Write the structure tokens for this entry.
Amino acid sequence: MKGYVVCVYKSIANEEKLKEYAIKAKVAVEKFKGKFLIRGGKSTIEEGDKSPRTVVIEFPSYNEAITFYQSKEYQDAHSILKGHVERQFQLVEGV
């Protein structure tokens, strides 16, 4: 079964740090065979709070999504965000 990263941002305090993170994270996503399905873009809120950004990435398997998250490449990118964004980050197994 496929694996997904579902990332819903609650706040972004520094857009430049987000851009720096995105460049490094994209390299890690590609290395682990991930495919961006949603990366920002237009959205409409029907329930709950508005999010400034949502990202969904598909991986060939749930285990590959975990491997991506735990990789040095991704963790190096992730460290850039510390103190600059608040978000919910989930790894989800598909059907």
